[in-house]
Design brief:
single chain, 156 residues, mainly alpha, Glycoprotein, Type 4 Pilin, three-stranded antiparallel β-sheet, 7% strand
Length: 156
């Protein structure tokens, strides 16, 4: 009986329809504000962690290059020259006796650093047999944090 009263009474019918209607504009604004606050608080932390992840990836790549250069040295008796660069780890640049590459686990050319720039390779280095350098996020020598240089030099 109560259901039939709601169907015939227009005021009660409108109230019932309002209860079933979607969200109000105020409710939607509150939800959007909450989402905005969450993104505002969490977003910078996620971006900071992404930057430090790139630094860690660059360090791992540089250590991988160093290991490959050591195997190259064992096979050929020397490190690649600056002119030959890290590409000598992937492709035979000269007719080196003992070259038994490729020395990197990638099927393509030598990868760039995580910021898309090529690694700098010098042989001989300033005080060592070779140096591998990435200038970090800013692409300039020096810096700190994510902009710090990532380097690896031979142990000789």
């Amino acid at each position: 009986m109560r259901q039939s009263q709601t169907q015939h009474n227009p005021v009660r019918r409108r109230r019932a329809l309002r209860r079933q209607a979607g969200f109000t504009l105020v409710e939607m604004l509150v939800v959007i504000t909450i989402i905005g606050l969450i993104v505002g608080l969490v977003g910078p932390r996620v971006l900071a962690s992404l930057g430090s992840s790139k630094v860690k990836a660059a360090r791992i790549q540089v250590k991988g290059f160093a290991s490959a250069l050591d195997v190259f040295y064992l096979d050929t008796g020397r490190y690649p020259t600056t002119a030959e660069g890290l590409n000598a780890l992937q492709k035979r640049v000269t007719s080196l006796p003992g070259w038994n590459g490729p020395y990197l686990q990638t099927n393509t050319d030598v990868p760039n650093d995580p910021w898309g720039r090529p690694y700098i390779y010098r042989s001989p280095g300033e005080r060592t047999a070779y140096e591998i350098v990435s200038y970090g996020q800013d692409g300039q020598e020096g810096g700190d944090g994510n902009n710090a240089d990532i380097t690896q030099a031979s142990t000789e």
